[in-house]
Amino acid sequence: MADVAHLPHFTLAYWCILVAVLMPIVCAGIAKAGKFDNHDPRTWLSQQKGYRARANAAQTNSFENLPFFIGAVVIAHQLQASQGWIDGLALAYIVLRIAYVASYLADLASLRSALYMGAFFVNVGLLFVGYR
């Protein structure tokens, strides 16, 4: 039987990538909840107002932010940064992004912008945490 202590495992930061990947899907679900035209979804979504339109915009923004976050996590791991820092920054990014989506849905534009910038700078920190 293999010694499980030597098997590769997902770090908390890798689990955060999964959460980040699921976030746009959750936003899409919020935008499309209830009455939805699945025969022409893009046209239907483009005509939405209020929280549905904001949820769709949050979905788009979540997709746009994925490459930088995934890259920053992978690079931090490759540079062998402290796992505690990687995990802490990745978790902070996820918390800020969840708050970002919530503020988008609630139409709190200034808070949303501040949370976006906070998550962006946490991501920059994550990218450079292993820099020597």
> How does the helix and strand content classify structurally?
mainly alpha
CATH topology: Four Helix Bundle (Hemerythrin (Met), subunit A)
Rounded to an integer in angstroms, the radius of gyration calculated over CA atoms is: 17 Å
Order of helices and strands: HHHHH
- Please tally the helical runs, counting DSSP H or I stretches of 4 or more residues: 5
Quaternary structure type: single chain
CATH structural class: Mainly Alpha
How many domains? The number is: 1
Which geometry do the CA atoms define?
elongated
Largest sheet: none
What is the annotated CATH architecture?
Answer: Up-down Bundle
Low-confidence stretches: none
- What is the total tally of β strands? 0
Separation of termini? 39 Å
The CATH superfamily name is Membrane associated eicosanoid/glutathione metabolism-like domain
Structural topology:
Layout: H1 12-32, H2 41-46, H3 50-78, H4 83-105, H5 109-128
Q: Your description of this structure?
A:
With 132 residues, this protein is mainly alpha-helical. It has a single domain, classed as Four Helix Bundle (Hemerythrin (Met), subunit A) (Up-down Bundle), CATH 1.20.120.550. The protein is 75% helix and 0% strand. It contains five helices and no strands. It has helices at 12-32, 41-46, 50-78, 83-105, 109-128. α1 packs antiparallel against α3 (50-78) and α1 (12-32) packs parallel to α4. The radius of gyration is 17 Å and the shape is elongated. The termini are far apart.
